[in-house]
Specification:
By secondary structure, this protein is mostly helical. The protein has two domains: about 190 residues, no CATH class; about 55 residues, no CATH class. The chain has twelve helices and seven strands. A hairpin with a 2-residue loop joins strand 1 and strand 2. It is globular and about 50 Å long.
Length: about 290
């Protein structure tokens, strides 16, 4: 997950944070009409080389936790960002385009954290008098194809309306513990389907503090991602539950409950702590 903003009080929910994000988007999308014209889904066979980012993710991301300092000091990472700035994604075939934009979002999120030397939470970035007028997701630091984009532009102006792929919410990582885990490899067009499916499995079945089903209480405990983006998952929380159900064991009572759509939905707490390896060590049980 990706876009939500933060106000100073830690107790604020993702929904409140995202509400302020929406205000920023209203102001930012209008100038993008010429910047991000309807994105062409090309039929060409070109690919983009994500191997440098892939190697960095393999070396410096463990169980979704990031060694941000390693990226900050890496010439290879700087070179990868420079390559993103030169590439026009419209020249790529559809799967390559989507893989490109997911990688760009995740790479520039890492760059944003390092640019501001943030160690606690992404929502501390660009905080102004407690209001999220610009916020971390409104900073135009993402260079792609010779243009500057914000993280909001990439997610809400390009990816969501163009590709209409709900599983991107399991792949875009907003540098928080509450997000889906950052993958220890780059996305590629050739493996995109399998990678998105695996991200869904990891987020829904292997992150019980974020998503779990309690049959005894007839309850779907779910990440706020399923609530806020329910329009992408079918338009309602029951639809979100049905969408999540396909990653649960076939024939299990948990899957049957979600597929039936008659469950109580309870949002789990969203942890905005930075998804850094240093924070993971501090938070580990003694």
């Amino acid at each position: 997950m990706h876009t939500p903003f933060r106000r100073p009080l830690r107790a604020l929910t993702l929904r409140a944070a995202l509400a302020s994000c929406a205000l920023a988007q209203v102001a930012s999308i209008a100038p993008l009409v010429s910047l991000v014209t309807p994105y062409t889904l090309s039929a060409q066979t070109t690919t983009f080389d994500h191997s440098a980012f892939d190697a960095l993710l393999k070396a410096h991301v463990v169980d979704g936790m990031v060694d941000y300092g390693a990226f900050k000091n890496s010439a290879a990472f700087s070179g990868y960002l420079a390559a993103l700035k030169k590439q026009d994604p419209a020249a790529l075939p559809r799967a390559e385009q989507l893989a490109f934009w997911i990688n760009a979002y995740n790479a520039y999120t890492i760059q944003l954290i390092n640019k501001h030397s943030e160690t606690k939470s992404i929502r501390n970035i660009n905080k102004t008098l407690g209001l999220k007028l610009k916020g971390p997701w409104g900073e135009p630091l993402a260079g792609v194809g010779g243009k500057a984009y914000t993280l909001d532009d990439i997610e809400h102006v390009i990816i969501r309306p163009t590709y209409k792929e709900p599983r991107i919410h399991f792949a875009l990582v907003c540098a928080a513990m509450g997000c889906p885990p950052l993958r220890s490899e780059a996305f590629t067009g050739a493996r995109l389907e399998a990678q998105l499916e695996d991200q869904g499995a990891r987020f829904i079945t292997k992150s019980p503090t974020k998503n779990r089903v309690d049959v005894a209480s007839n309850t779907f405990y779910h990440s706020m991602i399923f609530g806020y983006y329910k329009a992408d998952f079918g338009g309602s929380l029951p639809a979100s539950g049905k969408f999540a159900a396909k990653w649960l064991t076939a024939g299990s009572p948990e899957r049957a409950l979600l597929e039936g759509g008659k469950f109580k939905a309870v949002e789990t707490e969203y942890d905005w702590s930075l998804n850094s390896q240093a924070n993971a060590r501090r938070m580990a049980p003694k």
